[in-house]
Design goal:
Blueprint lengths: L1 E10 L2 E12 L4 E5 L4 H15 L9 E7 L11 H11 L11 E3 L2 E2 L5 E2 L4 H10 L4 E5 L13 E5 L2 H9 L12 H4 L16 H13 L3 E4 L6 H6 L1 H4 L5 H13 L15 E2 L7 H5 E2 L4 E2 L1 H4 L4 E4 L7 H5 L2 H6 L1 E5 L4 E5 L3 E6 L18 H8 L4 H5 L3 E4 L5 H4 L8 H18 L13 H7 L4 H13 L4 H17 L7 H9 L6
Parallel strand pairs: 3-4, 5-8, 8-9, 10-17, 10-18, 11-14, 14-17
Antiparallel strand pairs: 1-2, 2-4, 6-7, 12-13, 15-16
Helix pairs in contact: 1-2, 6-17, 6-20, 19-21, 20-21
The site of adenosine-5'-diphosphate has 14 residues, from α7.
Length: about 500
């Protein structure tokens, strides 16, 4: 007898339909899976066999052929266990003969017949909805990932036995609740607040500009000057994520299998802080299963490299391409996958090996050649992509003990949200959201320079020996500063401030 169920697999960030057809006949007992299964699907045979036996069903003593179509799709993961097992049970006459053409079944089986979680449930559900399926049955442990998807009924199963009862019509499965994104994204708590950072007005202003326009920023200063403290406050002033951005971000986290079981959606902008010993694969992605790396997990958020000079040069250099293209191509044996990687890069660094070069409070003991060698750790082309560079010096004692508290992050965030709204409006017919993402075409359309500004730019270009890239980046920062002041045009003062963040000797 022939039985059919629909499963899903993940290709990159997209769920793809897999039709699972099971045929049993009276040939010599055998169990075969065809349709280019990868090693994971071969292992699935053992799980399926044992799970069926432990769910009060018989594993048929026939010739069983499982066909996974389309054959040329490189299927990954163990999420096809469930439709395979159901197919075998049905084809051997142990399930009601009902059609489930409008339902997808996703889940890995454990040997005892329980349903285990699968990476990438959210992208699979999104694509099931797009493809017009009415219902999806997912593992109960992944139920959270179904809470924000409407248009498909989502049910959660814990065991194969429960699933069989549901198909037979003798049992029900719990329906996954639908939640409202606006409600959960409203009251986010942040662990660090900028109100506790004393003084450092220049750094705070620069950080607000960076976050407002999604520009890269590097903080340079002596040890203990508060670089790490300042950078840790960035999440609390980042603009709120729209539902679309949250879904896009969650898709990546889901595919990487790093979603926490508690939240079904990533509603806080990511803030990734890889350690300087992290491998290149961990950071950019790849490996056997071509999983997204940390830079893709930072998509729509921040990648913070604390003490940037400590990272291996090869890793820093591998950031150049994604910083420009905002996507990363990860290759594996035969195919390659593109993952989004649009992040704001935040770096911190000492100015020299001893840390006190340029400090007003301490003398630098480094030799010129030591300083040159140290600075070269972050290459010129990478430094050129840091839009805002500021020097942070130790805060003065009087400022440190000053009891008046600074502006809280919430106030800054309100302004940032307002500035981002202007950008959303500006780019509503474009495929970008922030000033930092502008290409030459957008610069032409939205960043016209007056004669006076053009003259300022020309002088800076010559005296600071700027690159063409630096010029575009300065104009984008100036656009953000103008937006913060609700100014239609980029005025000389906006441009001059943007230039000042470039001219720092770092
Ligand atoms: N501006 C500041 N306001 C309040 N505390 C500060 C400030 N700057 C530094 N500190 C204190 O000094 C500590 C060390 O700062 P840190 O951010 O680790 O410095 P850095 O990363 O530059 O070496 C912080 O944890 C904080 O307690
Ligand atoms: Mg530090
Ligand atoms: Zn020094």
């Amino acid at each position: 007898m022939l039985a059919k169920f629909t499963g899903f697999t993940l290709i990159g960030l997209d769920g793809e339909i897999v039709e699972v057809e099971v045929d049993t006949n009276n040939g010599l007992p055998a169990f075969e899976i065809v349709g280019l299964p990868d090693a994971a699907i071969k292992e699935s045979k053992e799980r399926v066999r044992s799970a069926i036996k432990n769910s009060g069903k018989r594993f048929p003593n026939h010739k069983i052929t499982v066909n996974l179509a389309p054959a040329d799709l490189k299927k990954e993961g163990a999420g096809l266990d469930v439709p395979i097992a159901l197919g075998i049970i049905k084809a051997s006459g142990q399930l009601a003969d009902k059609q489930f053409d409008d339902t997808v079944f996703i889940g890995e089986l454990s040997l005892d017949g329980g349903l285990r979680g699968v990476a990438g449930i959210l992208p699979m559900l999104i694509s099931a909805r797009e493809k017009g399926f009415k219902r999806a049955i997912i593992p109960a442990v992944n139920a959270k990932e179904g809470e924000y998807i409407d248009g498909v009924e989502i049910k959660a199963a814990s065991t194969l036995k429960e699933l069989c009862a549901y198909i037979d019509g003798t049992g029900e499965l719990p329906v996954v609740n639908k939640l409202d994104y606006d409600v959960i994204s409203e009251n986010i708590q942040y662990s660090d607040d900028i109100t506790f950072v004393k003084g450092q007005y220049v750094a705070k202003r620069a950080m607000e500009i960076a976050v407002s326009g999604n520009h890269n920023i590097i903080l340079v200063g002596p040890p203990g000057s508060g670089k790490t403290m300042l950078a840790k406050c960035i999440p609390s002033i980042m603009p709120d994520m729209s539902f679309e951005e949250a879904l896009e971000t969650t898709k990546i986290h889901s595919a990487a299998g790093v979603l926490s079981g508690e939240e079904g959606i990533v509603y806080k902008r990511p803030y990734a802080t890889p350690h300087h010993t992290a491998s290149r694969i961990a950071i950019v992605g790849g490996g056997v299963s071509a999983k997204p790396g940390i830079i893709s997990l930072a998509h729509n958020g921040v990648l913070f490299l604390d003490e940037m000079a400590e990272y291996p040069r090869s890793i820093l250099e591998s950031l150049r391409q994604p910083l420009e293209d905002r996507v990363i191509t990860v290759s594996r044996a035969k195919a390659s996958v593109k993952y989004p990687a649009s992040f704001m890069l935040v770096g911190s660094m000492n100015p020299c090996p001893c840390g006190f070069l340029g400090s007003k409070q301490n003398y630098c003991k480094c030799t010129p050649s030591q300083i040159i060698k140290y600075k070269a750790k972050v290459s010129g082309p990478l430094m050129d992509r840091m839009d805002i560079r500021i020097t942070v010096d130790n805060v003065k004692y009087d400022e440190l003990v000053d009891k008046t508290s600074g502006e809280p992050s919430e106030e800054v965030r309100k302004r940032v949200n307002r500035t981002r709204l202007i950008q959303r409006e500006r780019f509503k017919n474009e495929d970008i959201n922030s000033n930092a993402e502008m290409g030459e075409r957008h610069l032409e359309a939205f960043c016209k320079l007056s004669k006076e500004c053009e003259e300022i730019m020309r002088k800076a270009f010559d005296s600071l020996r700027l690159s063409a890239r630096a010029r575009s980046r300065i104009i984008k920062v100036a656009r953000t500063i103008a937006d913060m002041e609700l100014s239609q045009d980029i005025e000389p003062k906006h441009l001059l401030e943007a230039i000042s963040y470039r001219s720092e000797e770092v």
